[in-house]
Amino acid sequence: MKKLVAFRGHSQLKRAALNILVKTLKPKYVENLKEEFMKIDTDSSGFIETAELKRVLEKMHPDVS
Questions:
Q1: How far apart are CA 4 and CA 64, in angstroms?
Q2: Among 47, 50, 26, 28, residue whose Cα is nearest residue 37
């Protein structure tokens, strides 16, 4: 249970750090990142799932298994 709580804490810290990072970026850069994310997130779940990431990676680098 302690490991689960620690993992959750890391996740919250990561989320907070990403939030700060996004707030320091220029709006145009953030908009470009959102557009690229939405291209990968084909089911509009708000998350990039393994199958979606695999599809993009295979398209970019067909020789990678």
A1: 33
A2: 47
**Would you tell me the crossing angle of helices 27-40 and 50-60 to the nearest 10 degrees?**
100
Quote the pTM value: 0.60
Residue 52 tokens read as: 């979606």
CA distances from 4 to 13, 15, 16, 47, 60 (A): 14, 16, 18, 21, 35
Tens-digit pLDDT profile for residues 36-55: 999 999 999 999 999 999 99
Number of H helices, E strands in the chain: 3, 0
Spatial neighbors of 48 by CB under 8 A, at least 6 apart, are 37, 40, 41
